[in-house]
Each structure stands twice: as C-alpha cells, then as structure tokens.
C-alpha cells in the first residue's frame, strides 16, 4: 500500500496510489506521489506515465482528519497540505513525458487537481468527478476543473458541489475513452502504449511545447485559490466545515465569513 511504480512494458511507467479506504492522501502521501511521478518522468527510458489507483476510487482528495487532528500548531497543517498538493499537481503537469490518468469511482478534490493536470484521461463508466470544497470549508482545484469542463459548468459544479460523470466529460472532450470498469486498466494501457511508441526525444519536446502554449497558468491559478482556503481557515468557517465533515455532525449554517 502507498505509492508504487511498475513498468509493465518498455517505455511505460505505471504509478499507482493505494491508500485505503478511499485514497484520501495525507501530506506525506502527496509528496510521495510527486516524487514517484518525477522519478518516472526523469528516467530517459520512460515515454509515458500512467497514473492509476487501487481500491474504491481514484482519489478522494486531502485526508481531512490530518487537518482536524492535534499536534500541529496554528495553521501549519493547512500550509503543509497546500504545499504538498501543489507539489503533486505540478509534478503531473511538469512531467517531461505525457501523463495518462486512469480514473475509476470517485475523483474528488485533489483527484481533480491530478486529472486536470494530466495530458489524457481514460475513465471507467462508474467514475464521477467533482469539487466538494465548499462543503469542506475550502477552495481550490477550480483551476483544474476548468481544464475539464466549460467555464459556466465549472462554476455551477463548484458552487453546488455536484459531481459530473465520465460520460459527461467524454461529451465535453476531456475524457478520451469511457469503458466498463473491468476494462479500464487495459484501455488506459492501450493509450499509454500508443503514446510510448513515439520517439522519446520528440515526445519530451512535444510536452514542453504544449505546456508552453497552454492558455492557463495552472501553478499560479491554483496557488491563488489556496490563498482563499487559508483565509477561510483564518476566519474560522473552514475549520467549522471540516470538523462537521470529519465528525459526522450536521454542518454549520450558511453564514458568511
């Protein structure tokens, strides 16, 4: 369990997240994921990285119990989480070779951050994507959701904390292929294999070129959003919502900050 890397075929590195029960990652998990993606991409023999997960779903975002637990003074825990998530998201975006995300089940919060920064997405027909951030007292990853859906849909999903299905994302063109869950691994590997068949030097040039013409500065956008998460924490509303979620108590009212 944890973060592992396998090489099932020449040119392909498979990075797998396995953090039961729902792949909600603690700070060290986000850093481990960043390290695994960077190490895989830095290998000159790698021409495609396949990002996948074991268990019930692809990713449930941040382990909120770590933010609510004791032992970390002041707002240090939130700062640590912000930095860790930014590192993992950047590792996917800055990976020198294409990254294919294979998504099943839930892809929430930080999961959207990973997928939104990937180069291609293959998903099972039970996959759902969403940002429940407002219900958790946070803000963030709208930068990445906006790479998956049109602007007004992104805003509606963010304001309502609703999810969107893999089939809907396929219609928007952000998911390459939707497959029954038993066929997800094979479908994702098929796409990774097609990419890895290309010249490795040219693939790295292509990735750098596409990042260079990207209209969205994902690093700056996400860090800007994180500032509002910290502001919500300073005002107390963030802590109240996180506490309600982690304890199962009814959430706070709809008062403003």
Automatic annotation (TrEMBL):
Keyword match Lipid metabolism: yes
Pfam families with a match to the protein in the record: ECH_1
Family: Belongs to the enoyl-CoA hydratase/isomerase family.
Protein name: Enoyl-CoA hydratase family protein
Record's keyword terms, sorted: Lipid metabolism, Lyase
Keyword Lipid metabolism in annotation: yes
Source organism: Streptomyces abikoensis
């Amino acid at each position: 369990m944890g973060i592992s890397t396998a090489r099932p075929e020449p040119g392909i590195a498979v990075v797998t997240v396995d953090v039961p029960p729902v792949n909600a990652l603690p700070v060290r998990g986000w850093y481990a994921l960043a390290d695994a993606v960077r190490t895989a991409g830095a290998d000159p023999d790698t021409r495609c990285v396949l990002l996948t997960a074991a268990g019930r779903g692809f990713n449930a975002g941040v382990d909120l119990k770590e933010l609510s637990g004791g032992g970390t003074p002041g707002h240090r825990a939130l700062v640590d989480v912000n930095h860790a998530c930014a590192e993992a998201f950047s590792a996917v975006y800055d990976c020198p070779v294409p990254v294919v995300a294979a998504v099943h089940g839930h892809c929430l919060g930080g999961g959207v951050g990973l997928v939104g920064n990937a180069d291609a997405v293959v998903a099972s027909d039970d996959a759902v994507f969403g940002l429940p951030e407002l219900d958790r007292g946070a803000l963030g990853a709208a930068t990445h959701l906006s790479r998956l859906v049109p602007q007004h849909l992104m805003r509606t999903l963010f304001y309502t904390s609703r999810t969107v299905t893999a089939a809907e994302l396929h219609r928007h063109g952000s998911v390459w292929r939707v497959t029954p869950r038993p066929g997800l691994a094979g479908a994702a590997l098929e796409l990774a294999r097609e990419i890895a068949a290309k010249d490795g030097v040219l693939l790295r040039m292509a990735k750098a070129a596409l990042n260079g013409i990207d209209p969205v500065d994902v690093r700056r956008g996400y860090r800007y959003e994180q500032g509002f998460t910290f502001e919500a924490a300073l005002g107390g509303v963030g802590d109240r919502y996180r506490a309600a979620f982690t304890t199962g108590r009814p959430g706070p009212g709809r008062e403003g900050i």
